[in-house]
Design brief:
With about 70 residues, this protein is mainly α. It has one domain. About 55% of the residues lie in helices and about 0% in strands.
């Protein structure tokens, strides 16, 4: 995975930062709630060797597991 893959999947580098940060927070919340039986957050969608939520989020975006809906202004 390269950062260019993430940027190309999202559209621009600023949107890539926002999308990756949001997904990383969701992944972090998922790991925090494990064992609680709540099941509110979606688990990571890729198998990663990294334990860092931001890296996992970027791998998901690069592989097309996370989609971005573009809004018209």
């Amino acid at each position: 995975m390269e950062i260019e893959d993430v940027i190309n999947a999202v559209g621009n580098r600023f949107a890539a930062v926002v999308v990756a940060a949001r997904r990383a927070r969701q992944i972090n919340a998922y790991f925090s709630q494990l064992g609680g039986g709540i099941g509110e957050y979606v688990p990571p969608q890729v198998h990663s060797l990294s334990r860092k939520p931001l890296t996992i989020a970027m791998e998901e975006i690069a592989e097309g597991k996370v989609t971005v809906e573009k809004q018209e202004d």
